[in-house]
Amino acid sequence: MTHEAKSKVFEKEITELKAKNSNLSDEVSTLKDEIASNNSPSVASLSSNESGYSSNDSVSNTSQSYYQNCTAAKAAGAAPVYSDDPGYGPHLDRDGDGVGCE
């Protein structure tokens, strides 16, 4: 196999590995979002612990102040999400600088 042919094979392999790496990074991000979602208090426990609020109030407040992922935050027009914003969560802040979905 010539040097040029080997080079093309390696370039193709590099491209495939980069795509696979990107897909795996996306999968990791999705799994982190799911873990964060599973670790957050449920709406039912929030409404039972908060006196003076109906369960409907708790549901609407929770849905407005929590974004499962950056796609949801962007769809709500909330991105970027800053650490002092109600919808901020560490699962949205990959680099840990206090700004999510940047």
Task: Give structural notes.
With 102 residues, the chain is mainly alpha-helical. The chain has one domain (3-41, 66-100). It is built from four helices and two strands, in the order H-H-H-H-E-E. Strands 1-2 form a two-stranded antiparallel ribbon. The longest helix has 37 residues, at 3-39.
| Helix content range | 55-70%
Strand content: under 5%
Which strand order spans the largest sheet, edge to edge or round the barrel? 1-2
Q: Briefly note the structural class of the backbone.
A: mainly alpha
Total individual domains:
1
- Mean pLDDT over the residues: 79
| Terminal Cα span | 46 Å
**Poorly predicted runs:** 47-63
Q: Provide the succession of SSEs.
A: HHHHEE
- Please count the helical segments: 4
Rg from alpha-carbon coordinates: 21 Å
Count of extended strands: 2
Largest sheet: 2 strands, antiparallel
Task: Assign an overall shape.
Answer: elongated
